[in-house]
Amino acid sequence: MLVLFETAAGYAMFKLLNDKKLKNVDNIYEEFSTAEKAQESLELVAFKKFKSTAEAVDSACALHEGKMNKTLKKFLKGKVAESEQLAVGDAKLGNLIKEKLDVPCVHSPAVAELMRSIRSHIDSLLDEHKTELNAMNLAVAHSLGRYKVKFNPEKIDTMIVQAVSLLDDLDKELNNYVMRCREWYGWHFPELGKLIQDHQAFAKVIKTVGMRQNMINTDLSGILPEELEAKVKEEAEISMGTDISDLDLIHISGLCDQIIELSQYRAQLFDYLKNRMTALAPNLTCLLGELVGARLISHAGSLVSLAKAPASTVQILGAEKALFRALKTKKDTPKYGLIYHAQLITQAPAKLKGKVREV
Known about the structure:
Elements: E1 2-6, E2 10-16, H1 25-31, H2 35-41, E3 42-49, H3 53-64, H4 70-76, E4 86-87, H5 91-101, E5 105-106, H6 109-120, H7 122-125, H8 130-149, H9 157-186, H10 190-195, H11 199-209, H12 226-237, H13 246-280, H14 282-288, H15 290-300, H16 303-308, H17 311-314, H18 320-329, H19 343-346, H20 353-358
Parallel strand pairs: 1-4, 4-5
Antiparallel strand pairs: 1-2, 2-3
């Protein structure tokens, strides 16, 4: 039996001198436990050295995808006699070799164990090519890594999935920070939280003013409208809040800095998401809006998966828990998922909402 083994330096073909050793899978590792035993059982028949790193990477990628490139095809031609079998490490590759070259291939647990044993003693089995093998291992590993992580234009929707997930995380984080800030500063100036609803403006006012006693002499025209500024200053004079120390204010101001920075970054991220959605899925963006469209893509996994999904699946995306709960309890299934938040549906009359969601 012949054995095809792929290395970073080239293709190697060994001849197994005793086929009976493959009968018992458990004993194979013992038969090849040392380099001397491996050399006694295997004989190098042929070795095809790669001309360059590019050829090595091309061959490695082809094998990874279960394909047979020209280099391997030329190497195998005329090497295997009709009466012999070829042991391969990949069943898919074996089927391909059998189909194109009419070479009978074998892939089994015993062959897999044999490949493992060869790999552990490859330096001694390819002693003449040891230097080339060690040098090519590192080069091919780096090149193959770059190949796998290279930018793929078909996967640009991954950026949208990550961006919308980060946007949702930022919203949760911001909400926690703002609620904590309102509650914390509320002990000092409780009326301010009711007057200013905008979170970023609320944080900026605290950062600018500090103690409520400074409110009267502070210009807030760059943050608040004139009428609201007057109300805030009026409430500051008659506030029922308690006094706080300078140390308390330092920590509250630090929290306000975090809120302002996160709010600004969220705005930048939303602009980025809007531009990405407009470029990648303009029709979806026009129909449902940037956020709903991005969440649908994220939930489906990719734009292609979303496009292939039937309408009945799209309309309940995001409501899977409610769907399975309804099926389990034998109650009415949900009619909407993420698509419910689309402006097109929320603005539709109640009688037409069902038809709009199906369209």
